[in-house]
Amino acid sequence: MPVTDPLNNVHDTISAVYLADSRRVLATLIRLLGDFDAAEEALHEAFRTALEQWPREGVPSNPRAWLVSTGRFKAIDAMRRQARFGALEEAGDADIAVIDTAAWADEESVEDDRLRLIFTCCHPALAADAQVALTLREVCGLTTEEIARAFLTPAPTLAQRIVRAKGKIRDARIPYEVPARADLPERLDAVLRVIYLVFNEGYAASSGATVTRHDLSAEAIRLGRLLVDLLPEPEAIGLLALMLLHDSRHAARSSPSGELILLEDQDRSLWNRDQIGEGIQLVERALASRSFGPYTIQAAVAAVHAEAPSAAATDWAEIVGLYDALLGIAASPVIELNRAVAVAMRDGPAAGLAIVDAILARGDLADYRLAHAVRAELCRRLGRAADARGSFERALALTRQEPERRLLERRIAELGG
Amino acid sequence: MGTSMKYLCLVYMEPQKLHAVPDSECAACGAGMRSRGVLIAAEALQPVDTATTVRVRNGRVSVTDGPFAETKEQLAGFYLIEATDLNDAIQTAAKIPPAREGSVEVRPVRELNP
Lengths: 417, 114
Fold this sequence. Notes:
The complex is a heterodimer of chains A (417) and B (114). Helix content of chain A is 73%, strand content 0%. With 417 residues, chain A is mostly helical. Chain A folds into four domains: 6-105, Orthogonal Bundle (Rna Polymerase Sigma Factor, Chain: A); 108-225, no CATH class; 232-314, no CATH class; 343-417, Serine Threonine Protein Phosphatase 5, Tetratricopeptide repeat. In chain A, helix 10 packs antiparallel against helix 11 (210-230) and helix 11 (210-230) runs antiparallel to helix 12 (234-247). The longest helix of chain A has 28 residues, at 6-33. Chain A is elongated, with a radius of gyration of 26 Å. Chain B has a domain at 46-110. Chain B contains two helices and five strands; from the N terminus they run αβββαββ. In chain B, a hairpin with a 2-residue loop joins strand 2 and strand 3. The longest helix of chain B has 13 residues, at 23-35. The model of chain B has no long low-confidence stretch (mean pLDDT 86).
């Protein structure tokens, strides 16, 4: 083999193995050691040992199995040193005697471990923000500092959240398992919610630390892909499609100076055609299952937009129909509002405004900035400038996002004095 | 000689004082009560951080992190159960009838270290 610098080569290999396999190794170590912290420590020990041994002795034929078995050995060794007396010592010897790397190298159990890790991090008995933090930390391998930056949360707060969640997993004995078939729909919902939350956190923000936050969307898409690979349930496929289709508009959603650009004003040539192609394929796959849910329907809406050459040439009737279907399985005032926008595009602003006013009259979305922004826009199109101004100002008072604030101010200015 | 009653004695502590009383003292107290025939069951609990609240609404089990939060709900009873893990405990807790109307807080028992 024409190897010029074997040492560097081995280091490159270790880095590549770390990137590709460290989360898999961690997931398996958590199962074997029954403890998150011990598994993380063991993972680091295993890679430290690899850095010492692989340059000297060569890269093992199955690096992942080697890392798992080395990590496990190191962890048991450490536990034995900690509890020099007591039953653990005898148990430890017996355990080490049955090291069987073949069992851990087996593809199926390793992939199961990854699913176990996802379901454990997204267990409903953990606080919602802890589920998100733990998933990004353990499944995606982000550092606590990276997560803190992305969520604009102080790192110590985030670290505490993670420590507390791990403490609860250990002390309340949250099992490390893939839920039984009967519990799967509900537990899968929790996982999808976490992934979508991570995605939206990155997608909705477009000010300040834009770059870091878009990374969150990318991370969510990676998680979505992993889930579809491991567990191709229709709604997991639908969510991945939804995220890809939304993310495909990323480059068109803001101007170079960071101004927000609404869907109908976007330069559609900037939309990412690869993501759209993949997203549409996934939507079709999820729809074909005939057991899809709200994520798939929302993805289907996004697909109609993605296929339209312009806002005016969009099949709004199709979109109204999809929102009707969505309201049938997951009624919410926000979906009613989205449907009202589609109705306005299909039948004219007056028809849309009647629906928005009815929703607001119920008091359902009184504090939801987009309800007022939509009402303002429909009033503007109907030439009711004073009503438009009032609603834009209400939306402005409710928004907390800088680019949104600037967009609303521009709209108010455009109404004229 | 009257007939005997059963009483539930609930222990409340500020979280930072949780270890102010040594476990050995609690274990000795329990052993003493047991030998006098007055103790039915006694357990220490893990901190409130480990609590999970289980509710059943419209036949669906809802699980949330933390202790029951609504102050208008009052402690109405207890079940000391055995379970293999939290999922198993949640399944059992969801079958307690008041879970339909109120909340059932599931807290792991802590082994004393006498």
